[in-house]
Amino acid sequence: MTGLFLRLFTGPFYRRHTGFFAGCFIAFFGAVQPHTLGLYHRALMQTFLSSPALLALLLLAWSVYGLRVFGCCRGLLLGAEGRFLFETRALGGTRQVLPFAVAVGAIYLPLLVYAALMAAFAVLSGKGGSAVVIAVYVLLLYAGTVAGLLAGINRADRPGWGAFRPRRVRKAVPFRHWLLQYTWKELRFSFVLLKAFSLLLLYIPLVWNGDRYDHDSIVLFLVVLVAAHSFLAFRFVGFLEGPLSCYRNLPVGRGRLLLFFYVTYLVLLLPEGLYLYGVGRHLIAWPDLVAIWLVPVHTLLFLTAVQYGGAPEKTEYMKVLAGLSFVSIFFFNGEWYGRWMLGLGALGAFLFFVGQPTFEKGKEE
């Protein structure tokens, strides 16, 4: 039974996330020389243990991994190849625990090992409280995943659960919520990682190096933050002009569609705006603070307009993004955040109004 669960859950999970684990391996073991590997990981652990905020950010990243594990296993369980496992309810909850615990434990193994090493390092560094927090949190995350899968199987035959859950009539999603709904349903895992990475980029220059802050220290982090969010504009246009191309039958003018994109980007970048206000209001002038927050918003709007204007392919899109990032560095070094933001927004609106009807006509042909 345990071997069956390993083949059904553990193997497919690692195959689906080969790229993710390869990237983690490169970041943790391939980024430094072998003889400095110990010092590198020691410095990483010291960094996360030096601040409760950084430790909380690390635990949040681990939580995202746990949610991904649960979602993947649940999808396999409810898929055609895993439905027969609902028959294991006849074995009783106690005999079900071991196969699930081993299969999920094999998926959690890299996280459990690293958490154990970090907890041991925290104890040796005299931070026993942090060690307890790390150990308890990871074990609860692991146990919660196993318990959630067990509950999903054993409650499936009760009213309101699993395959016997009565079908609900879903309310129609307003047009203004389509992209937000798409982000939550399809891009949730990537979006949460993006927000964690984005807030970390702001944390480094504004908090970690806050006592030595100058405007040059935020330039590179802002460019990387904008580039990291660029995939949203590409995915949104592909989604709206692909599966939801029916929106063209709605009475939606270009002005409303442009506002639709703009408000969506404002909402998705609201965490960065609140964080900038919370930690940067004493370091950066208020007009520059607002401009820095709006730079990614207007950049995404411009990248959206560029796709409607003739760069819908990924290769062309990446070329535009690379050129935009290069030019923006000169404006950021001159502290011309407002000029860059306003110019990019105006140019993006113009390109959108000119290119969007042509894009629609090309699609229809």
From TrEMBL:
<feature type="transmembrane region" description="Helical">
    <location>
        <begin position="340"/>
        <end position="359"/>
    </location>
</feature>
<protein>
    <recommendedName>
        <fullName>ABC transporter permease</fullName>
    </recommendedName>
</protein>
<feature type="transmembrane region" description="Helical">
    <location>
        <begin position="283"/>
        <end position="305"/>
    </location>
</feature>
<feature type="transmembrane region" description="Helical">
    <location>
        <begin position="97"/>
        <end position="124"/>
    </location>
</feature>
<keyword id="KW-0472">Membrane</keyword>
<feature type="transmembrane region" description="Helical">
    <location>
        <begin position="218"/>
        <end position="237"/>
    </location>
</feature>
<feature type="transmembrane region" description="Helical">
    <location>
        <begin position="53"/>
        <end position="77"/>
    </location>
</feature>
<feature type="transmembrane region" description="Helical">
    <location>
        <begin position="20"/>
        <end position="41"/>
    </location>
</feature>
<feature type="transmembrane region" description="Helical">
    <location>
        <begin position="130"/>
        <end position="151"/>
    </location>
</feature>
<keyword id="KW-0812">Transmembrane</keyword>
<keyword id="KW-1133">Transmembrane helix</keyword>
<feature type="transmembrane region" description="Helical">
    <location>
        <begin position="187"/>
        <end position="206"/>
    </location>
</feature>
<feature type="transmembrane region" description="Helical">
    <location>
        <begin position="257"/>
        <end position="277"/>
    </location>
</feature>
